[in-house]
Design brief:
Undecaprenyl pyrophosphate synthetase; six-stranded parallel beta sheet; 13% strand
Length: 256
């Protein structure tokens, strides 16, 4: 595992390059496998993942990222055993309360996307409390995707469009649809990171990831730290983003 010196060197390297993504999105995968490898119940992996979130958020703020989106709980996750879902909701509620002070000290603003109304009432109330408490912060925008699904987001956007009397169907374009997504006002991710070695996007930000760079790591999420985030960003910096244009336009390299 990389040490503190490696972390500092990598941070200095990516900052020296001066080309950072505005928005990094993360599929936090591998909590269950982390626990199983240690002979522990699955929920132990979710508890261990809290430190990974804390360190990653700190690292993102440290280098000046604008937006960090974490795939926290998918619509499909409701199909897990009820005791696991209940434990995850309790963990979410407790973590929001426990981390609020540190998020405030780190100037982090909290936002959410997804069908928040599906969450237990007490979790909704804690989210509202946390968002309001952190709403005046001006640093990292931490976006939690909760009860989220990319297809559900598109369906909800179309439903909102049909209900919006100001929108004429003949004038419907990409910008109009984007204005009705959960992520309205949030730049599309420049970089998607997925942990645990799986190579799929699992119904996450289907519209927004159209031109994102994808980076996959074998690290299980509970073991993920800011040095891993920095490794993903260094990989991003080494790529040329062409957006359908020809290779060799250096002005497009690793830019959003």
């Amino acid at each position: 595992m990389p040490g503190l010196d490696d972390e500092r060197a990598l941070r200095a390297e990516i900052l020296a390059r001066g080309i950072l993504p505005r928005h990094v999105a993360v599929i936090m995968d591998g909590n269950g496998r982390w626990a199983e490898k240690r002979g522990l119940p699955r929920i132990a992996g979710h508890h261990a993942a809290v430190e990974a979130v804390r360190d990653t958020v700190q690292g993102a703020g440290e280098i000046g990222l604008e937006v960090l989106t974490l795939y926290t709980f998918s619509i499909e996750n409701w199909n897990r055993p009820k005791d696991e879902v209940d434990a995850l909701m309790a963990l979410l509620d407790g973590t929001l309360r426990n981390e609020s002070l540190e998020l405030m000290e780190n100037n982090v603003r909290l936002e959410t996307i997804g069908r928040i109304e599906d969450l237990p009432r007490e979790v909704q109330e804690t989210l509202e409390w946390s968002r309001e408490r952190l709403s005046r912060n001006t640093g990292l925008r931490l976006v939690l995707a909760l009860s989220y699904g990319g297809r559900a987001e598109l369906a909800d956007a179309v439903r909102a469009l049909l209900a919006d009397r100001r929108v004429a169907i003949d004038s419907l374009d990409e910008a109009t649809l984007e204005a009705h997504l959960y992520t309205k006002g949030v730049p599309d991710p420049d970089l998607l990171i997925r942990t645990s070695g799986e190579m799929r996007i699992s119904n996450f930000l289907l519209w927004q990831l159209a031109y994102s760079e994808l980076w996959f790591t074998e690290v299980l999420w509970p073991d993920f730290r800011r040095v891993d985030l920095y490794q993903g960003i260094r990989e991003y910096q080494e790529r040329e983003r062409r957006f359908g244009r020809v290779r060799g336009n250096t002005s497009l390299k690793a830019t959003s």
